[in-house]
Amino acid sequence: MSLRRIRFKTHSIVFNWLISYISVLLVPIVVSAFIYTATWHVVESEVNRANESLLRQMEQAIDGNLSGIERLSVEMALSKRLAGFIGTSKPLTDNDYYDIVNIAADLRLYQMANDYIEQIYVYYKNSDTVVSARERLDSRGLFERIRERDNMSYGEWQTFFNKRYIQEYAPITLRENGDAVKAVMYAKSILLDNPEQPGAVILIVIKNSKLLESISSANQSSVAVLDKDNRLIASTGIEQTPDFLVPAKLSGTNGLFYAGHAEQEVAVSYTTSEKTGWKYVSMIPAEMFDEKMKYVKKLIYISLTVSLLIGGLVTVIFLRRNYNPIHTLIRSLSTKSGITFEAGVNEFGYLQAALNNTFDEKEKIGKRLEQHRDVIRSHFLQDLLKGRLEQKIPVHELFKSHNIQLLTSDFAVLLFHVDHYGKFHDTGFVEPQKVKLVHFIIMNVAEEIAGSRHQAMTTEIDDKQACIINFNELHEAGELHRIAEQVKSFVSDHYHIHLTVAISRIHQGPEGVSTAYQESLAALEYRLVKDKGEIIRYEDLPVAGSIRGRNRYYYPFHVEQQLINFIKVGDYENSKATVDEIVETNVADASLSVPLAKCLMFDLISTMLKTLDEISTGDKRDFVDIINPVERLTACQTIHEMREQIGAVLQQICQSIEDARKQEHNQLSRQVMAYVKEHYSSENLNITMIGETFRLTPPYLAKQFKAQTGEALLEFISRTRIEEAKRLLADQSCSIAEIAKRVGYSDINTFNRVFKKHEGITPGKYKSIL
Predict the structure, then answer these.
(1) Is 433 within 8 Å of 416 (Cβ atoms)?
(2) Is 95 domain-assigned?
(3) What CATH number should be reported for the domain holding residue 746?
(4) Phi-psi region for residue 590, left (φ > 0), alpha (ψ -120 to 50) or beta?
(5) Which runs of consecutive H residues, i.e. helices, occur in 387-430?
(6) Residue 189 near residue 200 (C-beta atoms within 8 A)
(7) pLDDT 10s digits, 452-461
(8) Candidate ranges 20-24, 437-441, 560-564; pick with highest mean pLDDT
(9) Number of domains the chain contains
(10) Residue 95, SS3?
(11) Parallel, antiparallel or unpaired: strands 167-176 and 222-226
């Protein structure tokens, strides 16, 4: 058959084969692309490996020197001479100046101990003194000499040193002899036993040129060092941090990515120091290793051209050879069967349609019969459970007509109730489909497990799944419980479906099935007392008369009165414990019937509402409408759910009572604040004086004030005095000593210290600024 007789229709098998062969021809293209990509990654990884090795060497060199600086700072922090000057305050004495000279001499020795160090400063906050190896400054002088950036304010700079504890690196600009150079500062606090006393900070300055001594860039590459806050520490080839060096790009410990920089693409390699968290970054123009790929690309193009030429020739040969048998078969089938083959129709589709047409009717009839058989069998089992069988036909004949072979005359019924749909709870199924699917699973699992040893028949009745079990001759005690447990475990483990299972007693003959069904219904109703997810036997029900002979109801008057007293004072913990004890006492021995269980829960809610009425009759009525306890209980299905709802209502009631009591206590803080504002000018104003006024002990008064306002009482007194002092300073007519006396400070030094603590500057400086 020549290719001219093959019609290339879109539905023809020839067209499909042609597409398949072309797809095969795409394989070498894909392989070549994969080889090119793999080669690119190899070159890329080699470049990255070399860069990473360079960065690791740089990291080790810098980290080693930084470790030496950190050890030196620890030794300095432990120096008695450096730590001894921390408590010194202004004005400085001759002895203090002598100590500064000795400290400067020590700093020169420390500076000589490490070639990396450019300068060492020690900033003493209490005396606002900065000591270096060469000179003494104050904080303003240090601010003019070292700060992170030119536009940084003194307040921002001071915020850095106001931290309780400092131990970190920061990039700075060092100004010496009129020149500004980039540098790195390592700051470490000297710890004190007294946390209230201002401490000191050791500042070790390292010029960027020292860091760059260990950086050897090559191949037109640029190198940058970033600290853990992504600030540029040092660099070669760049003046400021490029836009692409952001935390999102440098999120890992090391890596490689591409970015645009200075109108060209660069390959960026980086690694992270485990010790300091600094990022060491190398940037190489991407065009340097693009050249290595040109030769590989040329070879791939040649291989693709050869593959396409040879593959096209092989495609034509095999297309003709494979189509000839199909053409002969189609012609023979269309001639003998009378089914016309239309040109351009898919040949395999034609064959499949011709064969399927023969079996379609038979398959449809079989499905219809099977569906009717299942429906008829289900109706029969439902009538059997409800005791509505046809009296004229023997029961055994009815079983036989439905292909049910009875083993013995012993019958029992299991009822299954779905408490949670598990994996199907949040699926895309609509509600009827979800319920139907879960019911189908439960019935199949129950029939499989029970049917392994007995005759099991399952059906759906009144939105529940029933399993009728016809026992074999050898059945053990507890067999029903074992089956129920296995069904629960299987659907829970595989589908996370939670079930409650009700078990009837064993009855004789098919006529006893309806009695067994009624018993299982009664057991399932007892789910209210037993909680969800239980296996409930009819024999264990109080109504069955087999347990202790009577129903027990425990809720005596003295216990109710005790609960009322707990609620009145808003004591949720004891109230909840009392409710739990009442419920546990009633349901502990499973002797409480379903009606009495409901009655108990509503009695508890009634007690809570009665307590609210005793407390008040005003807005408490609106509160009851909001929490709506009766409807919340009515919506519950089990004792466990009722207990949770009662606990929630109880918590809301106790919280409401507790909030009302707190409003009364908050008046104390307002009275104390008014007293302080009235007597702030008294030098004797303190917690003891206020406590005597309000007839409270000082510790209790301080604790209550802190709890109600969130602020310490002494801090509030100081803040009130400082606010008044600021108002007097603005007047400019009073001296500082006079103002200190008028706001309750007999010692001007104490006034200066407290004012500076709150405002950051001395009263004199504040007055001059105004």
Answers:
(1) no
(2) no
(3) 1.10.10.60
(4) left
(5) 395-401
(6) yes
(7) 888 888 888 8
(8) 437-441
(9) 3
(10) helix
(11) unpaired
- 279-294: buried (b, 16+ CB within 10 Å) or exposed (e) per residue? bbbbbbbbeebeeeee
Burial of 544 (0-12, 13-18, 19+ CB in 10 A): middle
Strands (E), 558-602: none
Asked if the structure places residue 205 within a domain, the reply is no
CA nearest neighbour of 318 among 716, 565, 22: 22
Give Cα 34 to chain centroid, integer Å: 39
pLDDT recorded at residue 645:
75
Which residue is associated with the tokens 């299982």? 520
Q: Are residues 383 and 531 in the same domain?
A: yes
Which domain, by its residues, includes 501?
372-544
pLDDT single digits (tens) 351-392 = 666 666 656 656 776 676 666 677 777 887 878 887 777 666
Do residue 647 and residue 692 come from a single domain?
no
| Contact call for residues 249 and 283 (beta carbons, < 8 A) | no
> CA-to-CA distance for 372 and 378, rounded, in angstroms?
10
Q: How far apart are CA 329 and CA 327, in angstroms?
A: 6
Cis, peptide link before residue 91, omega less than 30° from 0: yes
DSSP sequence for 129-154: EEEESS-EE-HHHHHHHEES-TT--H
Q: Exposed/middle/buried for 582, CB within 10 Å: 0-12, 13-18, 19+? A: buried
CA distances from 236 to 232, 233, 393, 453 (A): 11, 11, 102, 83
Asked if residue 763 lies in contact with residue 751, where contact means CB atoms within 8 angstroms, the answer is yes
Residue 681 has phi, psi (to 5 degrees) of: -80, -10
Same domain, 653 and 693: no
Sign of CA dihedral 24, 28, 29, 31: positive
Sign, Cα dihedral of 463, 465, 470, 476: negative
- Whether 344 shows a pLDDT value over 50: the answer reads yes
The answer to whether residues 739 and 724 touch, using CB atoms and an 8 Å cutoff, is: no
Look at residue 364 and tell me if it is in a domain: no
Cβ proximity of 742 and 734 under 8 Å: yes
The answer for residues whose C-beta is within 8 angstroms of residue 222's C-beta and 6 or more apart is 235, 236, 237, 238, 282, 283
Instruction: Quote the pTM value.
Output: 0.38
Contacts of 410 by beta carbon, 8 Å cutoff, 6+ apart: 470, 471, 475, 506, 507, 508
Those residues with Cβ within 8 angstroms of residue 581's Cβ, 6 or more apart along the chain or in another chain? none
Alpha-carbon dihedral sign for residues 11, 13, 18, 22: positive
Q: Of 622, 647, 665, which marks where a domain is finished?
A: 665
Average the pLDDT over 221-227 and give the result.
80
Confidence of residue 122 (pLDDT cuts 50, 70, 90): very high
